[in-house]
Automatic annotation (TrEMBL):
Record-given protein name: diguanylate cyclase
Organism: Xanthobacter aminoxidans
Domain PAS: 139-175, 262-325
Pfam families in the cross-refs: GGDEF, PAS_3, PAS_7
Enzyme class: transferase
Catalytic activity: 2 GTP = 3',3'-c-di-GMP + 2 diphosphate
Length: 567
């Protein structure tokens, strides 16, 4: 959608009393409507195009935090930016007397669209009928996760046994009428740390119902909290133990062996997981697919059922996936294989995902056999990061192995590649040529025309040498000072001599007077070592032979090539 279309859309939402704000891929504000300013008057007259979302959040929090919480504003801003970037479902929060529901979506250009809706307040408790006020606390004990219900003042009005277990509440203790933060503090106090400070983001995260958050408890225990609030402010919170997240697959398989209650628990965990979880039969047919596939891949779960899982995998990764399935058969519960693969999205795009496959032998209540449980996690950011890191390493390696003046390989890189090619020539009985090239009377060039002209001569000689290397073969390096070295793997003596002759001829045609007035010519002397059987001589011996040939070229009047064969 173009900016002009977003302007139209913003005006349309104004007529429905819904706020809109558009941010680019770098979290900078692009446009907003009047309802947005009505919901967030602290931005009126301050928000501007190009403003970072962090600045937007700073005004938002400055308008709502009391003095006791202002010390945590930087933490709140960081968490708010993370919510902005990762939000995938609507959540509810209170601001300036309004209860707002907000959702966000990223468009095809990477822009982030946020839309706010004011919720209509439901009748007060005193105005409700008896049926409306009725609430069966026993229902919470049928929820396999921990559950608590908060009133409009964020005080606990109900909690199930699993909630009490997750937070170490003793049977003699009560949580009703207390804020949730008090339960967390009591858990720390029970572990002998009564002065433990609450996580700064806890109070802030509690306000944004619908955005999952995590809580740290003693003994390296962690809980994940997901919340929903009704329009009258009642909050329903579920709590799960994520300390043993890696055992999630095994927990799912154990739950599936139970009766109807076990199956419901298995589906509850799978359907609320942010990962894509699939149950696959022995013939590779998909028997269950969690709803997360809609968010990540665009497929509805029913569209993937009863199809071969291979249909959704990139051809390059299908053999790896099949090998993981074969390796998993008979390996026992809890044994799994993990790898990164591309999975087909609905519109024929490929999404990088981290796959983990565990083998099982189960039968569902409807008679379908389950042989494997596969968990798929979005790995696009990880793959992009790994590729960027690889490119960076390659660039660093290239920089570390290059001569900064001429752009040719440096001596260290030459010696490493020479070692590889010398061993390869010995194994495969190939010949090679090695040439040492030295600029004639280079000191006189520096003394007469200056070091800048000397550097330009070095670069031009290097350019001529590099231009004469065979495409995709050979290596030219600056060996030191005004000396260069050429390596021609699997080359005959005739090829080596022809290359040296081309270098001499090209240097004659080079416009040296453009480097410095009065500089008529720059020539080189070359010593060429031709080795038909390199395994008969050491690397140092080949370099010595080329150097001896170079000395003869210098002694013979320079601007020529002398050849010597390795014995």
């Amino acid at each position: 959608m173009t900016g002009r279309h977003y302007d139209f859309f913003a005006d349309l939402l104004d007529g429905m009393d819904m706020g809109l704000c558009l941010f680019d891929a770098d979290d900078r504000c692009l446009l907003w409507n009047n309802t947005f300013l009505k919901f967030f008057p602290e931005h009126d007259g301050h928000v501007h195009v190009g403003e970072p979302y962090e600045a937007n959040l700073r005004r938002f929090y400055a308008a709502r935090l009391d003095a006791s919480e202002l010390a945590n504003i930087e933490r709140y801003i960081r968490d708010g930016v993370l919510r902005h970037r990762t939000q995938s479902r609507a959540f509810v929060f209170d601001h300036r007397g309004r209860r707002l529901r907000v959702n966000a979506l990223t468009d095809s250009d990477g822009n982030r669209v946020r839309i706010w809706q004011a919720l209509v307040q439901e009748p007060a408790e005193a105005e409700r009928s008896d049926a409306q006020r009725g609430f069966s606390i026993d229902l919470l004990d049928h929820i396999p996760d921990g559950a608590m219900v908060l009133d409009q003042n964020d005080l606990i009005i109900a909690a199930n046994d699993e909630f009490r277990r997750l937070y170490g509440v003793r049977p003699s203790e009560t949580v009703v009428g207390q804020p949730f933060a008090a339960v967390v503090r009591r858990a720390w106090a029970a572990a002998g740390r009564p002065d433990e400070q609450l996580e700064p983001g806890l109070l802030d995260n509690m306000r944004f119902a619908g955005s999952p958050f995590e809580i740290e408890l003693p003994r390296d225990q962690w809980r994940r909290v997901i919340a929903r609030r009704t329009s009258d402010g009642i909050g329903y919170f579920t709590h799960s133990d994520i300390s043993l997240l890696k055992r999630q697959q095994a927990d799912l398989l154990v739950a599936e062996r139970r009766a109807w209650e076990g199956e419901r628990r298995y589906r509850l965990l799978a359907e609320n997981s942010t990962d894509v979880i699939a149950a696959i039969s022995g013939d590779r047919t998909i028997r269950f697919m969690s709803p997360a596939c809609s968010r990540i891949l665009g497929w509805g779960p029913s569209e993937m059922l009863d199809r071969d899982v291979i249909d959704f995998l990139h051809p390059d990764e299908q053999p790896m996936f099949l090998a993981a399935l074969c390796a998993g058969e008979g390996s026992g519960l809890g044994r799994s294989a993990a790898f990164v693969c591309r999975v087909r999205a609905r519109h024929d795009d490929w999404v990088w995902m981290e796959a983990s496959i565990g083998a099982v032998q189960e039968t569902t209540l409807d008679g379908a056999d389950i042989a494997f449980i596969c968990s798929l996690r979005d790995a696009r950011e990880r793959v992009l990061a790994e590729r960027a890191l690889k490119r960076a390493h390659e660039e660093l390696a290239l920089i570390a192995g290059s001569d900064p003046l001429t752009g040719l390989a440096n001596r260290r890189r030459f010696e490493a590649i020479f070692d590889e090619e010398w061993h390869r020539a010995g194994r495969e009985r190939l010949g090679l040529c090695l040439a040492m090239v030295d600029i004639d009377r280079f000191k006189a060039v520096n003394d007469t025309f200056g070091h800048l002209a000397g550097d330009e001569c070095l670069k031009r000689v290097a350019m001529v040498i590099k231009a004469n290397l065979p495409p995709g073969a050979g290596l030219a390096a600056r060996y030191g000072g005004e000396e260069f070295v050429l390596l021609l793997p699997n080359a005959s003596g005739g090829q080596g001599q022809a290359l040296c002759e081309r270098i001499h001829n090209d240097l004659k045609r080079e416009p040296w007077s453009a480097v410095a007035p009065g500089l008529d010519a720059v020539t080189v002397s070359i010593g060429l070592c031709i080795a038909r059987a390199p395994q008969g001589a050491s690397m140092a011996g080949l370099i010595r032979i080329a150097d001896e040939a170079l000395y003869r070229a210098k002694s013979s009047g320079r601007n020529c090539t002398e050849v010597q064969h390795a014995v």
